[in-house]
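Re-run with default settings, no changes from the original entry. Doing this only to confirm the output is reproducible before filing.
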Amino acid sequence: MLHIIHEQFGTVGSILIALFAFTFIILWIAAISGIHEYPYSERRKLVITALFILIPPYALVWLAKDMYRQYKILKLDKD
């Protein structure tokens, strides 16, 4: 598989694809662990975790939304 990716995209392209895949996996795991910090009910955490596993882009959307929410909270604390 790596040989096919290298033939299709070259050295730089295959490195960028590997970096993108690694970043995607790290952010996906961060979103799954981040949902378990919230005081949601266990049932809601289970449903959201199942959505994260079945629909991986949903985890990234949730993580971006959570990061924006935390940014707003920190911005209000500075004022």
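The mean pLDDT is 90. DSSP finds three helices and no strands in the chain.
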